[in-house]
Design brief:
Layout lengths: L14 E7 L5 H8 L3 E5 L17 E4 L3 H12 L13 E5 L1 H23 L12 H19 L7 E14 L9 E9 L10 E6 L10 E7 L3 H4 L5 E2 L4 H7 L10 H13 L2 H10 L4 H10 L10 H9 L3
Parallel strand pairs: 1-5, 1-7, 2-3, 2-4, 4-5
Antiparallel strand pairs: 5-6, 7-8, 8-9
Helix pairs in contact: 2-4, 3-4
């Protein structure tokens, strides 16, 4: 199969969306009411309130705050092992919500910093510890993998939808000399930095407030490419545009390898060369011809850095 694609031949438009906003703004309900064959990853227990509602079709769910349990579930979905009772595959994956996952991972980084401080200074307490770059990297690492995995979902998955809470956004007051002199300038997504950047489209949800005469609405806070013609940046709607989004997303794609797997393959190619293998062979008294014969007996036709461990094992098997 040709690995190079002509843009006019690409028929798939899987969507990655973010629904964010204040509590009670219908983020969870919007996923369950409007999208087909939903697998919901529930980190807050919000889906409990949606069970038994006649207008919401049965959905699959995983209740967890553990990013590694989520990654395992996504592997099962990608492998086609998760199906509805009638045999239908998962078409929508909802992560409800990203705020909690980020909070847990931030705590992982904080705990790592505390443990390090205990090893090097018995005098430091939790309030005296600052997280280092390494601690933040530890916190973010599986989340980057999660974002990549969700971005490459396939085998029938057409919609990947994140939800997140909102938080107040502050800037330093004009002319202020202290970082403490801040003013509120709006709201932003309460999740790992850069989450909105990963999305094809993001909607800020605003809850109904009768006292303020505010009706429910969703506002486009980020949009990419062709979607921008349908949903201009900053535009607001009083009904969620389900039909337009579903019409836009057609077909499905093959599961793309996540960034961790690609990095692992790259590392294998960069770490070992054919010369490295011949050095090992010479230590065993083998020449290049004997190495080639040993590899063929192991089912390896030629040097392949990605099969380094198998090639080493093939040499080890030779007497």
């Amino acid at each position: 199969m040709n690995k190079y694609e002509l843009s006019s031949n690409v028929k798939t438009r899987n969507l990655k969306m973010l629904l964010w906003g204040e509590s009670g703004a219908r983020k969870t309900e919007t996923i369950l009411r409007n999208f087909p064959h939903v697998f919901l990853i529930d980190t807050e227990g919000n889906s409990d309130q949606c069970i038994g509602m006649p207008e919401i079709k049965p959905f699959l769910r995983l209740v967890t705050k553990d990013v590694y349990e989520i990654l395992d579930a996504l592997d099962d979905i990608a492998a086609g092992n998760v199906k509805f009772p009638d045999g239908s595959p998962v078409e929508t994956v909802g992560l409800d919500g990203a705020t909690v996952i980020w909070s847990v991972r931030s705590e992982v980084g904080s705990l790592a910093a505390e443990e390090r401080a205990k090893r090097f200074s018995a005098k430091k307490g939790p309030d005296d510890v600052s997280m280092t770059f390494a601690d933040w990297n530890l916190a973010k690492k599986p989340l980057k993998r999660l974002n990549a995995r969700l971005g490459g979902m396939g085998i029938g998955v057409k919609y990947v939808i994140f939800t997140a809470r909102s938080k107040d956004e502050y800037e330093k007051r004009p002319g202020a000399t202290s970082d403490q002199d801040m003013i509120k300038v709006g709201t932003t997504v309460d999740a790992m930095k850069g989450l909105s950047y990963e999305m094809n489209i993001a909607f800020e949800f605003v809850a109904e407030n009768k006292r303020k005469n505010q009706a429910w609405e969703c506002r486009v806070s980020k949009v990419q490419g062709e979607l921008g013609k349908m949903f201009p940046m900053g535009s607001a709607m009083r009904e969620f545009p389900t039909s337009e989004l579903i019409a836009y997303a057609k077909g499905s794609s093959e599961m793309a390898p996540d960034e961790t797997e690609v990095a692992r393959q790259n590392l294998a190619r960069e770490e070992h060369s054919q010369s490295d293998l011949l050095v090992l062979a010479r230590e065993k008294g083998m020449d290049a011809k004997q190495v080639g014969a040993a590899l063929k007996r192991a089912g390896i036709e030629k040097f392949d850095a990605a099969k380094w461990d198998d090639m080493v094992a093939a040499l080890e098997a030779e007497k």
